[in-house]
UniProtKB/TrEMBL annotation, chain A:
Membrane topology of this protein: Multi-pass membrane protein
Example of a GO biological process term: amino acid transport
Record bears the keyword Transmembrane helix: yes
InterPro entries found in the cross-reference section: ABC_transp_permease, ABC_UrtB_bac, BCAA_transport_permease
Keyword Hydrolase in annotation: no
Native organism: Actinomadura craniellae
Lineage, broadest ranks: Bacteria, Bacillati, Actinomycetota, Actinomycetes, Streptosporangiales
Protein's UniProt name: Urea ABC transporter permease subunit UrtB
Compartment annotation: Cell membrane
Record's keyword terms, sorted: Amino-acid transport, Cell membrane, Membrane, Transmembrane, Transmembrane helix, Transport
Entry GO MF terms: transmembrane transporter activity
TrEMBL record, chain B:
Domain of life of the source: Bacteria
GO cellular component: plasma membrane
Membrane topology value: Multi-pass membrane protein
Designated name of the protein: Urea ABC transporter permease subunit UrtC
Keywords, ordered alphabetically: Cell membrane, Membrane, Transmembrane, Transmembrane helix
The UniProt record lists the keyword Oxidoreductase: no
Gene: urtC
Organism: Actinomadura craniellae
Coiled coil: none
An MF annotation (GO) of this entry: branched-chain amino acid transmembrane transporter activity
Region forming the signal peptide: none
Length: 292, 364, 248
């Protein structure tokens, strides 16, 4: 029974990582329907930003790295949207392949700039150590990631529901033509959406440096799981992504505990397929009458 | 009629090149390499069918390739096994008795049947579950990719059962032949080329049949097809299973040709690479899929031999260019050029018979 | 005359909005029935329910004695109901003949579908002639004009050999000539089919309709022949202002 609680903090901390990496996708994939395979490389860019800041300043200032990484990754996303993706709207599968090409180039660029071996970002001293919880040791770094995930969710929620820009974004997502006719500059909204979504990948990247090394393959490692969270959560639904991330995180940790790490992945995949039998469009769906 | 004749002529020419010229001209090492690319071309053919014709972007064909390859590899390993009846890697990882799911693969007939049947069964199951629920497009692509990721993690994790990262290798006896011998390599090349040819003709027949027309209809308007009285899920599941079977067969051929099957050959990246190859060759034509797979792999080998890192840049850049400028791939460009030439030759009056497509807005 | 389609106590709710609020409707064998009503009256929703696209909250739809509610779309087609859509959807990559042939072939077993089409079947040829697209038979459907597409859709419907045809605004967006042609087509089809047509166009209605059902806010307002319906004060009230505009 004790082990049942043991797994809880581990599961929640996996959930927090999943949520952080998937939050950006709820913008780019969820709001705009763009499958950006280079999202993983934006995460990587965020992580390397933290690494470079550490090199430049000699200190481990997470507080500085987070906003800088947000802007760096966001700018990369904005550039990608401007240069390529905007020519591909309405062709989601082609976008997927296109951005995969971009992700290849970015990975190789990282290898050339930072070298193929992994690098380490030293966690700041106030994040070393941990706290006992249900009999297992939960590092402060993990707690920090959970807090960061919660803060991001609240900030996004407030942005989407309480700000003019956010409402515009939702309007464009629900009916692009109508929003355009109502005077919303849809192209600017697209740019902003992509900037924020990609910027969140940068934030996730900084968070990942606290729990592991940074390497050119960092993005590849997380991208599939991130998309699964969005698929299970339902397109464009923040609460869906939150619930899906928590459910998948917990399932992952418990499945890993009862079987092993490799079987756990298969179990999670099977669970998602099973879940889609009841909710083919994910947890939460926006209804529409159109025959698409 | 002339179109048809030209098609047969091209096919005969390619067959001549592959079956006569290549074996005569290429040194054994290069011929073996070509055999490997032909294996990938078989997978690509399946992708062309599922994605190009059916609109199902399957990013997990590596799984089916792997299932076929491992079925073949398991048979070969058991055939080579020492007195204990255990494959070498199991002895190294301390496994003492042969796992139950390995046992049937000692029988060559069972193993050869499994090469096709296991991938087909997995695809039928996944297809039924996913397509029946109308999960499609990007969602399907992501799920197929997740399957590839999970499959590889499983293979690597279950070291004692699957050979882990190393996969299955060190085969000493391939149906009575020495795998290293030049004659074996040569006959494997011919078998692979013939299988590819037969599968291509079969796939072409399928595309031209009513089923093939229906498949295109499903790709372009799945919901409309329902109102023609067909269940799109059935059409898609069958096609997906056919493409999985092709990938399985390719995997089984790959094992004797290359001498190894391992997780690094079937994960997310190799699966995606083949889709990319199909896109570059031309996804809407089966020949384009095959062409793409062969050219891309040649380019990959060539470039990796010269400068390793450059290939990724080149592949990425090439791919971005193709998707942006020529989404129909090499075959699409070829068709465009041919049509442009034909138009120049024809008197301008002949063009007037084409009604101008009118697009009118319909009040909803 | 016997009833082919019987709808009883039908209710459809979209997120709390009652799109159909208790409709009873009977269509007899061989009838040509027009469904009219202002926007949001529930006309298309009604057809969506009959064809399985939308699930009702309550009520039943019986077709020749078989309950349709709960069946999937393609099953309902196989029972003998065909429909068109407001925005015509034909398969642009396929030729006109291939479009019609697919529509005519759904009763073939799967194994037979694996064979290539040889020539043009009688059903398809007849449909081609009825819709007047014989000359364009081998062209891809993508090059057709809007009107031709609508006819191709109607042709596909005929090729299906259904017992009941549902047409959703067949003349919307058509030119005057095209409307006339469609009207003739409709009259011809109605000779040996049961047809339900949704239409906004009042002039078209006056020329080709006999039996009309007027829907309003998810209920049946009036039912009867054209003259009686037009004279009905309730209909005039619902259409007030609008009807004169439409008729102009």
């Amino acid at each position: 029974m004790e082990s049942l609680f043991n797994q809880l903090p581990i599961g929640l901390s996996i959930a927090a990582v999943l949520l952080l990496i998937a939050l950006g996708l709820t913008f780019t994939f969820g709001q705009m329907g763009v499958i950006n395979m280079a999202h993983g490389e934006f995460i990587m860019a965020g992580a390397y930003t933290a690494y470079m800041l550490q090199d430049l300043t000699g200190t481990q200032a997470v507080a500085v790295a987070l906003p800088v990484a947000f802007v760096v990754a966001g700018a990369m996303g904005w550039l990608l949207e401007r240069l390529a993706i905007r020519h591909f709207y309405g062709r989601p599968l082609d976008t997927l392949l296109l951005t995969w090409g971009v992700s290849l180039v970015l990975q190789q660029a990282a290898r050339d700039i930072f070298g193929a071996p992994n690098v380490q970002v030293v966690a700041p001293s106030w994040l070393s150590g941990g706290v006992e919880m249900f009999g297992s040791n939960l590092p402060y770094a993990r707690l920090f990631i959970m807090a960061l995930a919660i803060i991001c969710v609240i900030a996004i929620w407030a942005y989407m529901n309480r700000s003019r820009q956010g409402r515009r974004m939702r309007a464009v997502m629900q009916n692009r033509e109508l929003a355009g006719c109502s005077g919303v500059d849809t192209e600017r909204v697209d740019q902003l959406t992509f900037f924020i979504g990609s910027g969140l990948a940068g934030v996730a990247g900084v968070a990942l440096t606290l729990i592991g090394p940074v390497g050119p393959n960092l993005g590849t490692y997380y991208i599939v799981d991130a998309f699964l969270v969005v698929v299970a959560g339902g397109l464009g639904q923040l609460r869906g992504a939150v619930i899906a991330a928590v459910a998948l995180g917990l399932l992952n940790s418990y499945a890993e505990f009862w079987t092993d790490a490799s079987l756990a992945k298969v179990i999670v995949f099977a669970a998602i397929i099973a879940f889609l039998q009841f909710r083919p469009q994910g947890l939460f769906v926006l209804r529409s009458r159109a025959l698409t | 009629m002339s179109e048809k004749l030209r098609g047969y002529g091209l096919f005969a020419l390619v067959a001549l090149l592959l079956l006569v010229v290549a074996p005569l001209v290429l040194p054994p090492f290069r011929l073996d390499e070509l055999a490997k690319y032909l294996c990938f071309a078989i997978v690509a053919l399946g992708i062309g069918l599922a994605w190009g014709q059916g609109g199902m972007l399957t990013l997990g064909q590596g799984v089916f390739f792997g299932l076929g390859g491992y079925a073949m590899g398991m048979y070969l390993k058991l055939h080579d096994a020492g007195p204990g009846g255990l494959p070498d890697f199991m002895e190294w990882s301390g496994v003492e008795t042969l796992p139950a799911f390995w046992k049937p693969f000692a029988n060559p007939v069972v193993a050869l049947a499994a090469v096709v049947l296991v991938p087909v069964a997995v695809a039928l199951l996944l297809g039924t579950l996913v397509f029946r629920q109308r999960v499609r497009g990007a969602y399907f692509a992501i799920l197929s990719q997740a399957l590839a990721a999970a499959f590889v993690i499983l293979l690597v994790g279950q070291q004692g059962l699957t050979g882990g990262t190393n996969g299955l290798t060190n085969f000493y006896d391939i149906f009575g032949q020495d795998p290293e011998a030049e004659s074996t390599q040569r006959s494997m090349y011919f078998v692979t080329a013939l299988v590819l040819g037969v599968l291509y003709l079969g796939a072409r027949q399928l595309v031209k049949s009513r089923f093939g027309r229906l498949l295109v209809a499903v790709r372009d308007g799945e919901d409309r097809v329902r109102f023609l009285g067909y269940n799109p899920a059935t059409v898609k599941t069958i096609t997906f299973a056919i493409s999985a079977g092709m990938a399985g067969l390719a995997g089984a051929l790959f094992v004797p040709v290359v001498g190894i099957i391992s997780p690094s050959l079937l994960g997310v990246v190799p699966s995606l690479e083949l889709v990319v190859a199909v896109a570059i060759g031309g996804r809407y034509a089966l020949a384009g899929a095959i062409l793409g797979a062969i050219i891309m792999n040649y380019a990959k080998t060539g470039f990796s031999e010269e400068f390793a890192g450059g290939w990724l840049y080149l592949q990425g850049a090439l791919f971005i260019l193709v998707m942006t400028l020529a989404p129909k791939g090499a075959i699409g460009v070829y068709h465009q050029a041919r049509d442009a030439l034909a138009r120049r030759r024809r008197p301008p009056a002949a063009e007037d018979d084409a009604p101008v497509p009118q697009k009118q807005e319909v009040p909803a | 005359m016997s009833a082919l389609l019987e709808i009883r106590g039908l209710e459809v709710v979209f997120d709390g909005f009652r799109a159909i609020d208790g409709i009873d409707l009977t269509v007899d064998q061989g009838e040509l029935r027009f469904l009219i009503g202002p926007n949001g009256a529930g006309k298309t929703t009604l057809i969506d329910v009959i064809t399985g696209l939308t699930r009702p909250a309550a009520g039943s739809v019986r077709f020749g004695g078989t309950e349709l509610v709960g069946h999937k779309e393609h099953k309902i087609v196989r029972l003998g109901i065909g429909r068109t859509f407001q925005t015509s959807v034909v398969f642009e990559e396929l030729s006109v003949v291939e479009n019609l042939d697919l529509a005519a072939s759904f009763r073939r077993p799967l194994a037979a579908l694996l064979r290539q089409r040889r020539g043009v079947s009688d059903t398809v040829r007849a449909a081609l002639e009825t819709i007047g697209l014989t000359d364009l038979a081998e062209r891809p459907a993508g090059v057709l004009s809007h009107g031709q597409r609508q006819w191709l859709e109607i042709g596909m419907l005929i090729a299906q050999g259904p017992k009941l045809l549902l047409l959703d605004e067949p003349v919307a967006g058509m030119s005057k000539d095209e409307r006339e042609r469609t009207g003739e087509l409709l009259t011809e089809i109605a000779k040996d089919h049961t047809v339900i047509v949704i239409e906004h166009d009042m002039e078209f209605l006056r020329r080709y309709a006999s039996q009309v059902t007027v829907l309003h806010e998810g209920t049946v307002l009036v039912e009867g022949d054209v003259a009686a319906v037009q004279a009905d004060p309730r209909v005039q009230e619902v259409y007030l202002g609008r009807s004169r505009e439409d008729a102009a």
